[in-house]
Amino acid sequence: MMSDCHRRIHGRVIAVLLLQLFLSAPGFAANFDRGRSLYENHCQTCHEDWAHTRSNRKVATLDGLRARVASWSVHSGLHWGTEEISAVTGYLNRRFYQLVP
Question: What is the pTM assigned to this prediction?
C-alpha cells in the first residue's frame, strides 16, 4: 500500500503532467484545421484532388466556391451551417483554388 506521503507525491506528479498537457493544448489547436477535417470526413470520399484541379472546373470565384460547398452540404444530407461552410470553403480555397475575395 502507498503511504500518505507517496500518495501526495503521486498526486502532484499527475497534477504537473495534466498542467503540461493543458498548456500544450493551444499549440495543438493552432494546427487543427476544421475545414480540412470536415472535408476529409465528409467530402473526400467522392472528391479526390483532381476534382479541384481539373482545367474545366466550374468554380471561378470565392462566392461560387462557397455556393458549391453549401449546395453539396444539402445534397449530401449534412445541412451545414455558415461556420462549417466557411471553414470548408476556406480550406478548399487555401489548398486548391487561391481565389481572391
Answer: 0.68
Q: Which residues lie closer than 8 Å to 76 by C-beta, 6 or more apart?
A: 42, 43
Q: Is 5 exposed, middle or buried (0-12, 13-18, 19+ CB in 10 A)?
A: exposed
pLDDT tens profile 42-65: 988 887 777 888 888 789 999 999
pLDDT of residue 20: 62
DSSP classification of residue 55: T
Are residues 42 and 15 part of one domain? no
Structural domain count, the chain: 2
In a shared domain, residues 12 and 55: no
Query: Using CA atoms, how far apart are residues 16 and 11, in angstroms rounded to an integer?
Result: 9
Contacts 24+ apart (CB under 8 A), 37-40: 38/80, 38/84, 38/87, 38/88, 38/91, 39/88, 39/91, 39/92
The domain of 1 spans 1-32
